Amino acid sequence: MLDAVVAVITKGDKVLLIERAPTVRGGGYWAPVSGEVEPGESQEAAVAREAMEEVGLTVRPLRKVWENISSRGTFRLHWWLAEYVGGELVLEKREVSDARWLTADEICGLDTTFEGDREFYQKLLPSLASEK
């Protein structure tokens, strides 16, 4: 099983979600920035790299907050809380169609999210948002 990171990027009380491009797995679905951990790379470094590659933002990985297995069973997903540090949204169009800063309630109201992610949005995200 491959390791991947999921970057729960926060800015104030909002979290960045991206709409995956139609040409990638899960196209049309909304999810946090994510990607594989490269050989020899730490999870923290993968979070920072994926944020820069997919949306052009500098983030500070804070801590791992959750772990689950992807719906296809191919990835162990390591969910990391990461704080927005700087930069403007610049989308990697081959992977990302759109990006939005959303509240926990707005995220829970989206229909096009991965089923395996909903537990995180409903059970963990509200408590993380209230920590701020």
What does this structure look like?
By secondary structure, the chain is an alpha+beta fold. The protein contains 3 helices and 7 strands; from the N terminus they run ββββαβββαα. Strands 1, 2, 3, 4, 5, 6 and 7 form a 7-stranded mixed β-sheet that branches.
Mean pLDDT: 94
The radius of gyration computed from the alpha-carbon positions, rounded to a whole number of angstroms, is 13 Å
- C-alpha end-to-end distance: 33 Å
Largest sheet: 7 strands, mixed
The class by helix and strand makeup works out as alpha+beta
Estimate the helix proportion, in percent.
25-40%
Q: What is the overall shape?
A: globular
Low-confidence stretches: none
Number of extended strands: 7
Number of contiguous helices: 3
Percent strand: 35-45%
Order of helices and strands: EEEEHEEEHH
Q: Notable features of this structure?
A:
132 residues, alpha+beta, seven-stranded mixed sheet, globular
Summarize this structure briefly.
By secondary structure, the chain is of the alpha+beta class.
Produce the secondary structure layout:
Layout: E1 2-11, E2 14-20, E3 30-31, E4 33-36, H1 43-55, E5 58-69, E6 75-86, E7 96-102, H2 104-108, H3 115-131
Parallel strand pairs: 1-6
Antiparallel strand pairs: 1-2, 1-4, 2-3, 2-7, 5-6
